Amino acid sequence: MTATHILHVDLDAFFAAAEQAVHPEYRGKALIVGGTPEVRGVVCSSSYEARRLGIRTGMPLSQAYRICPEAIFTGGNFKLYSYFSQEFHKLLGNYSPVVENASIDEAYVDLTGTERLHGILLKAASDMQSKIKSQLCLSASVGLATNKLVAKIATGIAKPYGLYYVLPGREKNFLAPLPIRKLIGVGYNTEKKLRSFGIQYIGELARIPEQILSHTFGVMGTYILQRANGIDKRAVENRLTPKSLSRETTFATDTADRQFVRGVVKYLAHRLAFKLREHKLRTQNLSLKIRYGDLLEEQKCLATIPLNSDQRIATIAMELFDRLYTRRVAIRLVSVKASNLVQDSWQLELFEQNELQTDPLTQALDEIRKRFGKKSIATADLLYLNKYYTSDKEGYVLKTPCLSR
Ligand SMILES: [Mg+2]
After folding, report:
1. Which pLDDT belongs to residue 295?
2. What's the CA angle centered on 104, arms 374 and 64, to 5 degrees?
């Protein structure tokens, strides 16, 4: 069996680098992305020039200012980053049909079997790096290995603007001298526990008998042990971001009951938001469509900051509905659609904490929906809709719309 070849690519200091790409005056300077020092907030990203002076991601901006008052401070520009991200992922698609977008600035590329197309693997990897540099003006680091885990760790070592190749069969030796926290899956608590056993390096962890690890960590124990031995069977998943997601309802009988349809819009918005969170996506564009009984269709849309919360999406959808529904004709169908989607994995909450964080209530609701089904819980004002719904495989069709005239 031939070995798999997986390449992990990660853009260096992405947000800061994207700013430097479009603002030549920022190049070669200490640049801090996150906001101005007067605002309460944290460093989202910083240029390597700033990192050299001690700036770290997550550091309060005020502290960053004390360390480095001469740095350039700037807020985040979502549109710019998402443009660069799309171009980056597009470029990777030239190297293999199997590309997994792991986050806004990071991807796995399965190069297995593409050697004949791209010459030897290392050449393909460095070619990719120089294309990213010349076409996007961004610097990327690359790790090449037989699996995702080792490739990703190799990228970390290669940073910045480096290339690291772990030869097939050398995975375990490569990992052995590294501290255990480098191992994906070893979080703060696991690390603390392992350290209390006197284990500091991955090589030491790899020698622990499986029974001991599974006794302490349950199923995670086996998983950690495999990882420590450089084993990772996860395949590169061709997980391309869908272009759009939508939810719609066709009424069994056309209805002109504004309050009722508005309630349905809210309900659809909640379901759409849940879907977005399930796919780990956010929408930057929300549209609402009405199809009338006379089959005329109307649509309105709004560009937003990246959203995936029930409340925000429902508010916008209902607003769009209020603006759109001006004809005095009964409605046959309403649809709420999210497009221009972005991955949720970039830590957007660093920018605008209230705007973008998934709140604890939403998290709890999602847990309940995942366990007991999407109809298991709803806000009280939507409960009255339930009795009108009958489910089908595509969603829900209303049985008898209430005509409260
Ligand atoms: Mg990065």
Report:
1. 82
2. 110
Second-level CATH architecture of 14-78: 3-Layer(aba) Sandwich (3.40)
- Edge-to-edge, what's the strand order for the sheet holding 389-392? 297-307, 281-292, 331-343, 244-255, 395-398, 389-392
How confident is the model at residue 188, as a pLDDT? Answer: 79
| Residue 142 Cα to ligand 1 middle (Å) | 11
Residue 372 has pLDDT above 90, yes or no: no
Q: What's the CA gap between 318 and 301, in Å, rounded?
A: 12
13 Cα: distance to centroid of ligand 1 (angstroms): 5
Nearest 5°: the CA angle 61, 85, 3 is 115
- pLDDT band at 252; cut points 50, 70, 90: confident
Instruction: Compute the distance between CA of residue 176 and CA of residue 162 in angstroms, rounded to an integer.
Output: 21
Domain ranges of the chain: 14-78, 85-172, 176-225, 244-398
Catalytic residues: 106
Q: How many CB atoms lie within 10 A of CB 259?
A: 9
Burial label, 182 (beta-carbon count in 10 A; 0-12, 13-18, 19+): middle
pLDDT of residue 137: 96
Q: At what angle do helices 78-92 and 14-22 cross, to 10 degrees?
A: 100
Q: Which CATH architecture describes the domain 244-398? A: 2-Layer Sandwich (3.30)
CATH node for 176-225: 1.10.150.20
pLDDT of residue 241: 67
pLDDT score for 382? 64
**133 CA from centroid of ligand 1 (Å):** 14
